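Repro:
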Amino acid sequence: MGGVKDPRDLRSHQWYGTDGLRSFSHRARTRQLGYLPEEHLGKPVVAILNTWSDINPCHVHLRERAQAVKRGVWQAGGFPLEFPVSTLSETFQKPTPMLYRNLLALETEELLRSYPVDGAVLMGGCDKTTPALLMGAASVDLPAVFVPAGPMLPGHWRDKVLGSGTDMWKYWDERRAGLIGDRELAELENGLARSPGHCMTMGTASTLTAAAEALGVTVPGASSVPAVDSGHERMAAASGRLIVDLVGRDLTLSRVMTREAYEDAVTTVLALGGSTNAVIHLIAMAGRSGVRLTLDDFDRIARTVPVLADLRPGGRYLMEDFHFAGGLPAFLGQLTDLLHLDRPTVAHPTLRAQLAGAVVHDAEVIRPRERPLAAEGGVAVLRGNLCPDGAVIKHIAADPALLRHTGPAVVFDDYRAMQRTIDDPALGITADHVLVLRGAGPKGGPGMPEYGMLPIPDHLLKRGVRDMVRISDARMSGTSYGACVLHVAPESYVGGPLALVRTGDLITLDVAGRSLRLEVPDEELARRRAAWVAPAPRYGRGYGALYTEHITQADTGCDFEFLSREGAVPDPYAG
């Protein structure tokens, strides 16, 4: 081990090293697994938490990468054990993997606590797995390293380079507008996602893995290594070696994931023009680390941080371009005056040391400070009588003409009903209208699905309209774009002001003023509130009922109340 920890001080020693019946049983059962005593006794036991699945294309290569992690652990003198944990596939899991983020966090926490584990390697990358794994591991507070799944290869169609998600939305609207047909769409199906790995735009997956690297819980540069690049396997092996060293030094997550680290993660997300989903996830992750992070922190930092990554959906390039431009170390090297450089990371004594020598190789992809993509961070936090607890908008990916807009609302109470009726000319929707969806928040969704990029009516698409103001208590994909106000809190399901909006009400969005207002007199809103009736519960039993009873609102991270509150949890007695 890289440190000087006595093997008798290892947590796993309680299971394996004492002179008692239980230790005898544990050793005997390990022989049953086929291991010799010298392969594991007195060595750090490293849990490899693997979110691989046949139905998760973002993680379909992680079964092989786990072997590289094991190789690194063995080389460094540790004893690796792979644990399969829940896979949260953004592509396939319904109604949304956000419903199950806290379930994976709970599974991670309890698995690491209940088994003879001294440290952990966390393998994930698809949107919800990164925060879930880190939330659970932070709650146990063992040494841990995160291994990002990595972005897929760039997409291709004819002479176009495609970005997964972003170009899916774009070309689907082109088809609705009658500009492309079924033949082109079939070709796009084959070219949009060409390899294992998560979305290669600066969507939620890349945003959260970059945040993990900025927090200091990966090997340097890990977050942008393409999933199918041989460098990804080398990164996985290096992570396996690193975790053994961290156990030896007893460098737990609480010493790395500090308030300073979370502020730097927020700075990173905003300077990348990253996903709005990072707001919810970082607040939840920080809560598990005992750090109070708020929407106001995001807005405060956003006003001081330029956007320097020219990445889709707000820019031109993709993650492979970013990686070969220098990756996150080079990117953060452009922001050193805004970062806490003297905090530790899992790989270096300080962030300053980790960034030393990093060089930008392409100043178009990673912009210099004097030539930013935008002067302020790409996400704005809104307040007002329609969102007293806040809402967010990724204004860097919106039509600038809509960032100060007043228009009449068209209200939809149900996403499926909206899908059926949005194209109906009888609704009289114009480009000046404000599309409002409610019933799509944490409890109402359920799980706060990515419904927030509401479709533009096809008759407007055919006239060339490509953006409208849209407001909801839902989230949207980090690969999405448009003037979409999201995460309205409190949500309509619990009686937030969004529940009181009626079709025809004027709504004013003012991003510069950080305001979202319903232009209805307070007396009228009071009358509507008095007449409001709470909706029936979505779930009568099961996990959904547990979720509904304990989930918090978007502004506080959508964690379970009983997982986010303070309180001691004892280590199990292994004897």
